[in-house]
What does this fold into?
Amino acid sequence: MNDRQYAMPAQRRPAANPRPEEKQMDQEPDRPAADKEPDQRPHDQRDPRPDEQPDRRTDDQPAQPSDDAPAQSSEEVDSLLQELVAYLRDNRTELREEWARRISDAELLGVMSDEEIFSEATAVYDNYVDALETGSIETLETYARELSERIIPRGVETHEVLGIVLLLRDVLARSLFAKYQKDLDLLNRILDAYEPAANRIAVIVGVSFVDERERVIHEQQEAMRELSTPVLQLREHLLILPIIGVLDSSRARQLTEQLLGAIQENRARVVVIDITGVATIDRTVANHLVQTVEASRLMGASTILTGLSSEIAQTLVDLDVDLGMVKTVGDLQGGLEEAERLAGYRPGQARDLTGLET
It folds into this structure.
C-alpha cells in the first residue's frame, strides 16, 4: 500500500470521543434564541420582562380590581349583601328622596302627585331592601301586584314602571360608587353580589305589572264582547241576540258560548239572531253560525236568523254555505212575530223586555 494514502496531516489531531451531552446537542437542530427554558423561580424573584413595568401606585391611589379574581362563595356574597343592606338602611332618607326627585324630573308617573310618588317610592324602597336582605321575593311580589292594581286604572304605562325601577338601580349604583371609590376591589365585589339580586327584583316588578295589565285588558275585552253581543230575554222561553259590528271567528265562538249558556239558564225554546248590524260575513263565520243554530237545536231551542242584507245573502250563495237547517226571516219585526208564534204566544199579545204579559 502507498504510505501517503494513510498519512495524516501534521496540523490536525485525532478527535476525542464526544461526551453524551455534546453528542445530543450535535443531533438537535438549532432553536431560536428567544425560545428559552421557563423560569422556575418564584414570581416575586424573577427578572422583570421588558414589557413589564413596576407598580408605582402610591398609597393614596385606589387599588385596581383584578380580572382573575376567583368566584365569590355564598358566605362572602351574603356578607357583602348584609353590608350593602346596612348602608341602604342608614342612608334611607337621602336615597329615597333622590329617587323620588329623579322620578319627577324624568316626568314618570305623571298621573300621580308628588306626595303619592314619595309614598309609593318609600314603600317600594323598603320592600326592595327587605328582598335584598332576606332573599325572599313573596312580599315584594305581593306589593308589586297591589301597586299595579292601583296605578294601572289611572293610566300608568309599562315603560314608566320599568323606568322607575331602573332609576332606583341608578341612584343606588351612584351612591355605592361614591362610598367605595377608594377601594375599587371591594366595590367590584359588592356589585357582583348586588347585581344578580337587583336584576331579579327588577324582573319581578316588571313581570307583575305586565301580568296585571294583561289581566285588566283581558277583563275589559271580555266586558266589551259581552256588551257587543248581549243575549236578551224578550219573553219567557224567548231570547233575542242582536249582533252589531265585525263578526270574526273569535267573536263568533264567544257568541255561541254566550247563547248556549243563556238557552240553558232561561230554558229558552226560541232564539232570534239578528245580524242587521253586520256588514260582511266570510265562509268560516257563516259555517260557525250554522253550527250555532244546530247546537241550539240540540238544546231544544229553535233559531230564527233575521236581518240578512242582499250583500250577505249573495255572499252566502257564492260561498255555497248550507243554510238548509236555518230558518230565516227578512227583518227583525217579522222574526219576532214568527218567534212568538213558535213559542205559543197569541198574536197581538203585548210584550216587554221583562217577560211580563199584559
Observations:
- The CA atoms of residues 123 and 143 lie 9 Å apart.
- The radius of gyration is 43 Å.
